[in-house]
Amino acid sequence: AQSVTQLDSHVSVSEGTPVLLRCNYSSSYSPSLFWYVQHPNKGLQLLLKYTSAATLVKGINGFEAEFKKSETSFHLTKPSAHMSDAAEYFCVVSPRSGRQLTFGSGTQLTVLP
Amino acid sequence: DTEVTQTPKHLVMGMTNKKSLKCEQHMGHRAMYWYKQKAKKPPELMFVYSYEKLSINESVPSRFSPECPNSSLLNLHLHALQPEDSALYLCASSRDSGYTFGSGTRLTVV
């Protein structure tokens, strides 16, 4: 079984300040972990993914996430927020060998000017 | 080609209409998926096709009928829908742990 908890439903930051979106997972096997972003009325875009290599994963648009097995966390960070980062973010877990994605409930990121 | 293409982008249909959503990928992915997403919610899995055979049906009402004519195409046939079926319908494909989502079809049932 697997589950994902996104600890914040809404996060608000000022432009140019750091972003932290928190995600904890539960899995009975070695998981693959993903962060997806969804802009209004758009599909899902992959930001980054962890499969089994380096625990610090770098993604697109300056985002990165660190896989911490001891804390069962996969938090998403960005050093400096941009207005275009305002969107819904989903943390997702799947079995490394399987095809079932389990989505977190999402975090709405607002970037203030 | 690294995309999943969905058509149409928008669809308005009456409750007595029959329509179809189309999804296409040319990445050689052998697993394809339909998801339904309501506003402010995560996507919910509807169907999974693996090697063109239906492998998972998440108790979806029969007014939704999936079809996988070949390894590149996935259709979702719609008939006698209800207003609560209005949502964004997302198609995805995958190979190993690499998933790609389409941009979705925004469906409105009137």
Overview of the structural elements:
The complex is a heterodimer of chains A (113) and B (110). Chain A is mainly beta and 113 residues long. Chain A is 0% helix and 56% strand. Chain A contains no helices and 12 strands. In chain A, the strands form 3 sheets. In chain A, strands 2, 5, 6, 10, 11 and 12 form a 6-stranded mixed β-sheet that branches. A 4-stranded antiparallel β-sheet of chain A has the order 3-9-8-7, with no helix packed on it. Chain A is globular. Chain A starts with a strand and ends with a strand. In chain B, strands 2, 4, 5, 6, 9, 10 and 11 form a 7-stranded mixed β-sheet that branches. A 4-stranded antiparallel β-sheet of chain B has the order 1-3-8-7, with no helix packed on it. In chain B, β4 (31-37) and β5 (44-50) form a beta hairpin. By secondary structure, chain B is mainly beta. Chain B has no helices and 11 strands. The model of chain B has no long low-confidence stretch (mean pLDDT 93). Chain A binds chain B through residues 32, 34, 36, 41-46, 49, 51, 88, 90, 94, 96, 99-101, 103-106, 108, and chain B through 6, 31, 33, 40-43, 45, 48, 50, 56, 88, 90, 92, 94, 97-104, 106.
**Rg over C-alpha atoms of chain A, rounded to the nearest angstrom:** 13 Å
Oligomer: heterodimer
Order of helices and strands of chain A: EEEEEEEEEEEE
Q: What would the principal axes of the Cα set say about the shape of chain B?
A: globular
Report on the biggest sheet of chain A.
6 strands, mixed
| Tally of individual helices of chain A | 0
Contiguous low-pLDDT stretches of chain A (5 residues minimum) are none
The percent range for strand residues of chain A is: over 45%
Number of discrete helical segments of chain B: 0
Termini separation of chain B comes to: 36 Å
Mean pLDDT of chain B: 93
- Class per helix and strand makeup of chain A: mainly beta
How far apart are the termini of chain A? 41 Å
CA-atom Rg of chain B in angstroms: 13 Å
Give the helix proportion of chain A (percent range).
under 10%
Q: Please write the string of helix (H) and strand (E) elements of chain B.
A: EEEEEEEEEEE
